[in-house]
Amino acid sequence: MNTAAHLPVWPFALLAVLLAVGYRQSRSRLVRPATLVTLAAAMLALSFFGAIATFGAGAVPVLAWAAGFAATVSWGAPLLTPRGLAREGGAVRMPGSWVPMGLMLGIFMTKFGLGVAAGVHAEVLHQAWFIAAACAALGLLSGAFAARARAVRHFERAAAAA
Questions:
Q1: Looking at the 3D structure of the chain, how many domains does it have?
Q2: What is the pLDDT of residue 89?
Q3: Under 8 Å CB-to-CB from 66, ≥6 apart: which residues?
């Protein structure tokens, strides 16, 4: 069976968009904190709905995803906060970073792998440990976007108050 013949085209279009967005974020840029919140919300939706679409809205997938998300948002900020931020008017100058691209690709590859596994009816998709691990990974990755957005928003507010 030729698996490549059964792959839809849209994941590759999405991959191209994610690569473009990730490349753009690898360059220094001026952003409004609300833009980062929007990106974080998009990655949250992509990962959460990916987990639910693959495993259903049961307790294990939802709680594992939420635990991963909460862990990154709570404890990941020191590692994920962009360094060298500068306030310019109502925006923040952010140095370029490859971290967002890595996070986006992590979510994409996890979802793509889960889609392939579902397509070939892999038995591991029914194992509780695998469901918990995959959903926690998606939560961790999307939580990193939320942690970064929260840190930039906090910086912007502190700089405005000073």
A1: 1
A2: 82
A3: 139
Using DSSP's 3-state secondary structure scheme, residue 61 falls into helix
Residues 53, 115 contacting (CB under 8 angstroms) = no
Domain that holds residue 22: 3-161
pLDDT in tens, 34-93: 888 898 898 899 889 989 988 999 999 999 999 999 999 999 878 888 888 988 888 899
**Side-chain half-sphere exposure of 99, counting CA atoms within 13 A:** 20
Task: Specify the DSSP element, H or E, that contains 15.
Answer: helix 10-25
Do the beta carbons of residue 118 and residue 45 sit within 8 Å? no
Short-list 16, 1, 12, CA closest to 115? 12
User: Could you tell me if 146 and 40 are in contact, meaning their C-beta atoms sit under 8 angstroms apart?
Assistant: yes
Give me 50's structure tokens: 């990916």
> Which H or E element spans position 86?
strand 86-88
Residue 26 and residue 96 in contact, taking contact as beta carbons nearer than 8 Å: yes
> Quick check: helix, strand or coil at residue 93?
strand
Token output for 160: 């405005």
CA proximity to 127, closest of 64, 72, 44, 47: 64
Residue 52 · residue 123 · CB < 8 Å: no
pTM for the predicted model, two decimal places: 0.84
- pLDDT the model gives residue 32: 87
